[in-house]
Every structure is written in C-alpha cells, then in structure tokens.
Amino acid sequence: MTERDDLIRETPETDVFASFEGDLPTIGRRSSPGRLLRRYLPAFIAFLTVILVWEGLTRLLGVESFVLSKPSEILTSFTETFTTIWGAGMRTLLEAATGFVIGTSLAVATSLAAARWVGFRDGMLPIAIALNATPIAALAPIFNSWFGLTNPFSKMAVVAVVVYFPVMINTTRGLLEVDPAELELMRSMAATPAEVTRRIRIPRALPYFFSSIKVASVLSLIAAIIAEYFGGPQNVLGQYIVNRAQLFQFPDAWAAILVASILGVTFYLLILLAERRLMPWHVSFRSSD
Amino acid sequence: MSSSVVEARGVGKTFGTGDGQIVALSGIDLQIHQGDFISLIGPSGCGKSTLLRLIGDLVSPTTGTLVVNGKTPGQARLDRDYGIVFQSATLLDWRSVQKNVELPLEIMDFPSEERPARAREMLDLVQLDAFADHFPWQLSGGMQQRVAIARALAFRPSLLLMDEPFGALDEMTREAMQQEVLRVWRETGTSVVFVTHSIPEAVFLSTRVVVMSPRPGHISDEIVVDLPRQRDQDTREQSKYFDLVIEVREALRKGEKGGGAL
Ligand SMILES: Nc1ncnc2c1ncn2[C@@H]1O[C@H](COP(=O)(O)OP(=O)(O)OP(=O)(O)O)[C@@H](O)[C@H]1O
Ligand SMILES: [Mg+2]
Question: Would the pTM count as exceeding 0.90?
Fold first, then answer.
C-alpha cells in the first residue's frame, strides 16, 4: 500500500501552478462561499499588493511607460482596445488549442505504441528526450516557409511539436511504471496485453498524463505567441504585441500580454477541472476530513 | 475424490543466474486431490509463496514436472482454473470495492448484467456488502484482504490459491473468515492451497498440512488432518485437534533442525 502511495506521490509536478492546486476545492467536499473566500483571500491580497506597489513605484519614481507601464494605464488600454485584443486573443487561442490537441493526440498515440512494443520504445525515447531538450520554438521560421506565412497551421505545427515531447515522455513513463503485483494479478486472470493496458496502464498513466498536459497547456500559448513573432497575419496577439511595442504604445502591448495571461490561466484551470473529474481517486484529491 | 488437481514431481526453482543464484525450492513432490484443503507451513523464506506461484504459472519451474488440473500450469492459467489471493491485497485504487471484485468478471467476459449481483454475493460472503461503494484506500488492511478474497472467489475457480490471506486480520475476524473459507470450500468443492504461519490455523482448516523447511526449500513432512470436514468452534477444543497441533509443531521443529540435511 505504502509503496503504491509513494509511486503516485512521485508523479512529476513540475508545473508552475502545482503549489496552487492544493487550495482548490476538493471533490466530495462542499465549498461554502465563506470557506472559498478564506482560501483565496491571501492570494487576492497578495495580488492587490503587487499591483498597488507597482503603481505606486512607477508613479513615485516617474518610470517611463516604455520601461514599465503603470497598471492604471494598462487597464485603460485594456478596456479601450478590448474588442481588438480579445479578438486577437481568440485567434491565438485557436492556434494554441488546435496545436495542443494535435500534439497531445500524437503524443498519446506514440506513448501507447511505446508501451506496447519494446523495440519501438528503445529506438524512440532517447531521440525524443534529446529533441525535448532542443528549443523547438526555433522551428517557427521553417514551418512558416513549409506551410506558408499566413497559414495558421504553421503556428499550430509549432505548438503541436512543443506540446508533443513533454506529453509523450511523461505519458510513456506512466504507462510503464506499473506495480509488478498488479501485472501479476492480471496474469493470474489470463488478461490479454490490451486488457492490461486498458485496466492497469492507462489508469496508472493518467496522473502523469495530466501533469504533462497542464504544463503543455501553458506551453502551447507561449509557443503560439512566439511563433507569431516570426511573422504572419497581423490580427493575432504576437504580432499585435510586436507592432504596439514598435510604436512605443507600451500600455497596449501590456494589455495584450494581460489577455494572453488570462487565456493561459483559463486553459490551465479547464484541464485541472477535467483532471478532477477523470481521476477522483487520486491521492492528491482525497479529502483529509 | 481421487482426480489430481496438482501433481508435482521433483519440482525445483532457482532464481537468478551465476553468483547470485538462490535455490528457492528443490525436489518438491506433492499431490493435491480434488476437494483437498492443503496448508503450506514453514519458516519465512522457505519457498511457500514460490510454490504457490509455480502452481499459478506466475513463475516457471527450473526442474521437474508440474501438472495442474491435468494440464500444464500455463494452460490451467489460461483456462482460468484458479483464483489467487496474494500476500498483499493488490486492489486497484481507482476502482470501488464492488468494481474491484468485478474485475475478473470483466476480464473473463461475464455478461455485464450478471457482474454486479455476483460481486455483491461475494462481498456478502466476506461481510463487506456495506462497503461496496468505498474505495480501497478507505478500508483497513484486513478489509482490503477480504476484498481480495471476494475477488478471487468471484468467478468460482476450481482451485483457490491463498498466500497468508488472514495475516492482517485480528483474531476474531480471522476465526470468522476461517469459518467462511471452510464453508465456501465445503459448498463449492473447490480445492484450496493455503499458505499460513499459524499452526492452529493450518490444522483447523486443512485436510493435510504440508510442512516445509528452508535452505533449500523442500517439503519435510506431510500431516493428514483426519478431523471431520464439518468444523466449528468445538473442533478447536477437541483433543484430536490439540494432538495434531502438537504434531505439526514438532514436524516444524524437526524440519528447522534438519534443514540443510536434505
Ligand atoms: N522473484 C524472485 N527473485 C529472486 N529471488 C526470489 C524471488 N522470489 C522469491 N525469491 C527467493 O526465494 C526464496 C523463497 O521465497 P518465498 O517468497 O517463496 O518465501 P516464503 O516461504 O513465501 O516466505 P514468507 O513466509 O516470508 O512469505 C527466498 O529466499 C526469496 O529470496
Ligand atoms: Mg510468502
């Protein structure tokens, strides 16, 4: 029992929001508004403090807008340009989300193959790990020339490649790291390899899979915006930020970054929700009451 | 009553190769008949679990021949001839208690409308019907072990292999479970191979106690328990029962001393 607990707790939680997760409402526990408020109050106060200090310091020290825009300026720009930046945000999100789905699907397919065929795994994994360490966003200009500068698929392809490797490597690891006792149990019941995959490997791999797609969700938006920096249609976040910065309209650029950040966090939280629905058994969600 | 469920001739098992070799078992001759209740008893490391796993085709013998239900152990496993309860419960965390018991039924393609009722029946048997919807990590170690027993029985195998299934139970639950296993055994005609460290438990349950000794693991004695099949609390107070307990204890002590001699 303890061995298996350890196995689960070892799940890679490399994502930036990991420490935040424990604070989310636990399944099966009713979260009263008061309780929620108390839980999020410190984070909210910290956020407000940062904004106020930022505003105060930029005013006090007379920091120029091109160095660091004031939160108040950014907010004004945000409301004034909202339809433009939100539209740009949606187009960027579409690239990110499509790339994410393509990359994740390919990664899962590869992982299942790698878990099934040892030869495939031994051939593929070292290459994958090497490629994972390469800054893949640098492929953007190449994809632009392959698929066309204005074709959104050239951005989706960058996202897909960026997402592919971490998801593939982690999911494969999860599929392979199963308790030998569970494999023995399945063997005693003369279960086929497909049954073992379905009933043991996939449930065991889910925590790894979700950890990796949480990271990938954030990466996908970063990758899409970076890919956009390398050129293409103007009505997307990356190009908007570049253009406004070139025109010294820094509050506008910051407002667009704010949109990117809102989209990133939303994407991440959606996956967190899906995780909770699909793995209610997981140790990290067990209520301690 | 004479057909052989398990027939071992000169079975040996060596783990590892070269310098790291461990001879877990050597020269095992054992015959188990239909309807037998066999206990394997012996000091830790003498190869009880290994013998059970050989019968279940979870490891293969290095030497000798082993026949299970008239077939190779591999074929018996593929035919789902046996159910096994491991030393640790090995329940799947992501399945409720009920779903854990249904696992073999799913794998063995039992009709889906039959599975829940059958799982319930098994949970009744181990007195965990109230916990059907709980998850394994919400149960005590002993309760988990009972779920594992229910799971092994769910598809009504003709042979039941149990590796210290009651090790984690308190004395009262243990005695109740012993009664239950005896009842299942009498009612279903299942043959049982039961590993235990408890001499009274071995005598109370078995038709025959197989005493094993270490270095290398071998069978040092077999004691036929000629108590009636119908056993209850009174059985534990019969002098015949006490005599048998003493006989097994002495056989164990002798095996311990003469361990390396064979
Ligand atoms: N997979 C394995 N690889 C190597 N050695 C093993 C393996 N399984 C068992 N052994 C060795 O075989 C011997 C017998 O082990 P086994 O588990 O059968 O003992 P046991 O009688 O069941 O002991 P216990 O009462 O402690 O459960 C031990 O010396 C053990 O180290
Ligand atoms: Mg053992």
Answer: no
